[in-house]
């Protein structure tokens, strides 16, 4: 007979470790998943806003191009001179006297563009300017962004944009290429331009600081939402897992109890008793402690079933179990051995002390069953007791050896054989009690035949 005990502590530790790994892995997966989703939303949102900004810049560019084209098709626009209205010094004949003798001055497309830009800038809305690598007006000389854009236009690009840090904060700058048209040659032919040449570009600038601030706020809100939703989801999953684990633990405990408990009496079953017997025997052999066992059998139990019915027989077994549990020590191992037989393991005491305990249990059983059975019929038991020390002594061992002794180590290896021997001895003592008149407890006494059996344990 070998022990089939499972290391429940190790299983519990492994289960807790696996559970922690599962929760940590799930949390990481959910966090990565939600972070990826919300980060994708944030990137998509930022891209959409940037596309809107770019479309706004393109729209402004097209508006000024159309305005310039309109002015160029009419050869410019004359405006009445007055305070703040001065002639364009870069034109050969900018002024003209009207029929009413008032003075008019020509506004060419470049100057119109600049003056519209100045009006827009005063409203803090946007600004734009026309420039080229060879401007007529030195005031239209390109800045760094415009120069790089113009150089790219000469290499074939048609537009360029970027976000920059300006004097008023973050700005979006856009520049589109201007091609020389027939109407442009009146002013620019002297600069060597031909129709179709890239003669410059219009740059559009406006502030995006507030937009970017709101985008950052939006990203923060998205991150907070991602963390909150991830935490909430993880919390729900963990709560569900905890609840499921609790139910599984309960089911596991019920299965373990069902596997080790007799359903009729509620006592430990034979399997559990034998597993614990192995533990206690090895402990006694290792430490040199005492150990005894007893087998109980209900007297004339067949007559109880025949005369009072099987229900009465079941009641008798239940009451025997109640009396045994109430009368045994807290650390004695009480079990149903099979049928109307019961077994008790007595750790730490010899067979004489176990005999006294068995007599106490025997009397308690008689009282308990008499009070519960039909017609006040007491069910008695016969008990056989055997001790490990006597078995060792009868087999030529002077006493139980501690673990440090070589013979003690050998005895521990033979623990299972000693258990078989003790159970046989207790069973023999039980039959002796039956033969002596029943309703009594008897200690096993060695005979030559049994001594030969004990010798086989070496």
Major sheet description: 5 strands, mixed
| Average pLDDT number | 83
- Decide which structural class fits the backbone: alpha+beta
Give me the CATH fold name of one domain: Alpha-Beta Plaits
- The percent of residues in helical segments reads 55-70%
Parts with pLDDT < 50 across at least 5 consecutive residues = 1-5, 402-412
- Supply the CATH class of one domain: Alpha Beta
Specify the number of helices: 13
**What would you say the CATH architecture of one domain is?**
2-Layer Sandwich
What is the strand tally?
A: 12
Rg on CA atoms, Å: 52 Å
Task: Specify the overall morphology.
Answer: rod-shaped
Any overview of this molecule?
- The strands form three sheets. The chain has a five-stranded mixed β-sheet with strand order 9-10-8-11-12, sandwiched between helices. A four-stranded antiparallel β-sheet has the order 4-7-6-5, with helices on both faces.
- It is α+β, with helices and mostly antiparallel strands.
- The protein has helices at 8-73, 109-122, 144-154, 185-188, 209-260, 270-287, 301-308, 310-327, 351-372, 388-394, 406-413, 415-435, 448-455, and strands spanning 77-80, 95-97, 103-107, 127-131, 159-166, 169-179, 198-207, 291-298, 333-338, 341-347, 381-387, 441-443.
- Mean pLDDT is 83; it is low at 1-5 and 402-412.
- The chain has a domain at 270-455: Alpha-Beta Plaits (2-Layer Sandwich).
- Helix 6 packs antiparallel against helix 11 and helix 8 (310-327) crosses helix 9.
- The two termini are 16 Å apart.
